[in-house]
Specification:
alpha/beta; 2 domains; binds nicotinamide-adenine-dinucleotide; six-stranded mixed β-sheet; 38% helix; Aldehyde Dehydrogenase, Chain A, domain 2; single chain; Aldehyde Dehydrogenase, Chain A, domain 1; globular
Amino acid sequence: MTRQIWLGTSQVPASDGATFEVTDPATGEVIDTVADATVADALTALERAVPAGEAWAQTAPQQRADLLTRVFELIGERADEFARTMTREMGKPLAEAFGEVTYGNSYFRWFAGEAVRIPGRFTTAPGGNGHILVTRAPVGPVLAITPWNFPLAMATRKIAPALAAGCPVIVKPAAETPLTMLLLGEVLKDAGIPDGLVSILPSTHDAEISATLMADDRLRKVTFTGSSPVGRLLVRQSADRLLRTSMELGGNAPFVVAADADLDLVLAAAMQAKMRNGGEACIAANRFLVDETIAAEFTDRLTAAMDAVVMGHGLDEGTTLGPVITVKQRDRIAALVDDAVAAGATVTTGGEVPAGPGNFYPATVLTDVPADARILHEEIFGPVATVSTFATLDEGVRLANDTEFGLASYGFSTDATTAQYLAAHLAAGMVGINRGAISDAAAPFGGIKQSGFGREGGVEGVEEYLETRYIALG
Ligand code: NAD
């Protein structure tokens, strides 16, 4: 049976009746058929979002908080269904899918709290001739475009703050992984969300839908998580109507290990930062930069840990590495590795595409990678670690910052001064110091440079959906 799109709280087929298939990346088998939302469907969603948003903006903050809390509870009750759905459509090991349910859902809990704390300010004008009152108003209808790597969390980081702020949302999930969002549609309905406030439109017509909605006067904001080229395109398209935008784009995270680092802690953090989600994470460690005096030991231990990774179907017990999302992505990763090897890199483990079925690529470690190899400059987005060395910490930091991206960086040292130096000098929106896992609903997630702008989570996250109003009081 075809899964239908959500236009508000109604599930309907696409206006032209078209569908597309969703496959299991571990087997290549078709697991579901989904209605393929059209541009007309997107315009209907916007039509419904406008009055729903106007009414929602007038609700009491506590009412908005209560809805988000109810959604949080219902996702928790259906955690098993969410986790299995994610593993089936995206491939990640089931334990990691449960982790994403907890993490993704934490945004509903966090923004339920923020909904009742939207700030403002009141001061006496310096001239003494009146008062300055600053309030916040919801920005209005939001288009949220999300990638396939975290099918739940990448969307909840947008939906929860938008609803907390008082905005309606049209969600366009990635066509590879639409099922998790369609399941969220059930939860939103069960939680009692007003009709029209959130629509969920899986579609293969991503470019047409976003271009049409962004050209429509009623849309006020685009929030995007995905690749930098698409982000740049959307920013260009947003210019004509001066739309508010938030861009969570690609990364090329360095992982800097000083000579005095605690290697047990470093190895555990390295496996988290590299292998979480099979490396298909925008904050995944892309480049390990290690003090030359400890590089051999680090490489041996990282190689052993990567050797111990168990590749398989995410639903199978014991699997610690699932498949890559598509053949195209798998081939892209293989090409980056082959290119580095051709230029002189050494493979200490992995490096060979296994026989099918499924889009698997093994846990791989590369050393002696030439400085100009593509793999050091492009986002790997897969289970491949590169290890390079530095002679001085300054050199390590310089290499770390030698990238057009600036999403996450990691630094490791047991010395407080060195750790502070790394925290201050690693150029990224987020810096993990002696930590390999940094995501937290209570913290502002986002990048600088080609990794984009805007923040998700924290007290900053709701600001993306608010505009500032100044009232001059006489
Ligand atoms: P992608 O940019 O190809 O696709 C992301 C989304 O954009 C999908 O929903 C897709 O349908 C849509 N899209 C694609 N082309 C479009 C167009 N022309 N107009 C409108 N929408 C379009 O990225 P991907 O391959 O799905 O995801 C991987 C990328 O996402 C990586 O670069 C990764 O770093 C990035 N990412 C960033 C973050 C972050 O928070 N910074 C988080 C996760 C992933």
